[in-house]
Amino acid sequence: MKTFDAQFRLALLLSVLSVSCLSAVETVVSPDGALEARVELRDGQPLLSLARRGAAVLEPAPLGVTLKPPFAGGFDLAGQTRGSVDSAWTPVWGERASIPDRYRSLTLTLKERGPLARPLILELRTYNEGLALRYRPAGADGAAWQLEREDTAFRFPHGSAAFAIAWTEDTFPQDPVPITALAKNAMMPFTVRLPGGAYASVLEAAVVSYPRAMLAKRDADTVGIALQGRAEGAAGAATPWRVVLVGDSEARLIEHAHLVQTLNPPCALADTAWIQPGLTISDHGNCLLQMADLKRVIDVAHTNGFRYLQLDWGWYGTEWTWTDADRKKFLEVNPSWAGDLSWVTNTYADPYTVAKGRVPYRPDWKSHTVVDLDMPELVRYARARGMGLCLYVHGDVLRAHDLDKLFATYAAWGLAGLKPGFVRYGSAEQTDWIRSLVAAAARHKLWLCIHDAHVPDGMARTYPNLMINEGGGGQEGNHPVRQDVLLPFTRCLAGPFDYTPHLYHKGKSHAHGMAFFVVYPGPTAVVRGGVKEFAA
Hints:
The protein is α+β, with helices and mostly antiparallel strands. The protein contains twelve helices and 29 strands.
């Protein structure tokens, strides 16, 4: 009888130990106690869930990455550390004099059960504003790692619906789409209305040497990270932060959006006094690139409180260097130009020189501008009125040149900023090039307004000369009015948005146009048109 009792006790103990290995649970709660993140190791698979005041924001869904070669046999919990931070940081510009950096952290070291026994470190932080998580993988014996995919997934409570778009400048749906009905990959920010009326939004922050991500459908209520290219790194290098903002309303998400910048490294610039926010007016919609007209724009803009004048495409010629086939195509579309070929010189896209005369826009279009610029005089004239000059340059043209050499030239010209356009976006190489672009501009005291697909990731905390980005469906997309109402709690959560409104343009009221500068705060928000009306 004693033997049987001993065997029973041993079996019971082994059973308890086995269950504890199969399902280890750790939680971390936000400083205000409202958010609780829970990580469960179930049969070797880490799962994440998130609750707000007891109500589900995220149901349990997989975490992790798939390396090359893949992890084998799942994970065991090898260690954990906890911490907390209660501090703040001071931005160079923006609506807040001080931004809180308050969180509680949980770092889990997971160990592969397979023969390679590789570690995977999972870092979680719960802020009052939301949740942030990232990984620190390692290859075998501490070697560099290469990802086959990132397995992070977000399972929302059944009945959740998202304001989802499939590409950067897409039009948001009038009403959120049930996650069960999503058919395409979706951009981030991915804003979700939860069944109880609260809101959440999935974003990414601090994307360094890593591709940008979209969200792909995993199952009925689940979306997961879908990388836009190959990912690799040195042992211990961190992946980007995956961020879930949470609020009881859309407005609360806007108030919490500073978390994206907070998750980036502190300012890397010793001197930031030269970084001066201010409204920017474009020649586009106001005049051609001719001195008399531009001086008039400067006069009117100065009187109305603008700080910068931006010259859009055409000042250095065509946006990119044309081929002979491009020129032939243009003459087919514009046969009247064959009699005077002086414009051909302007199709070689030299960003070190200023074009002269007629500049065509695209080989297959009839649009063109006429350039008559004295750049030193224009800079002098603007400076005399307390304004700076900003120039547009196509992203591919910038990539073809040494950035430090080119930006030193622009600094010598007396420029204040640049608008890189059609900047390539998505892969790890493109992500790093954008960071090198911003850093090079900072070295030469140039602020940037990056246009087209680039969605900010909070880099402006580290490099505050990155004042504003497009990365969304603004004026050029000719979207319905509802788009303008949805953007503040979707695209704008990622950072300042250069909507580039065309003021006093048909289809929208004057009050609607003026509201852009309150609803879409941006340190160097750009305006098209308006000079005629301002001067009236």
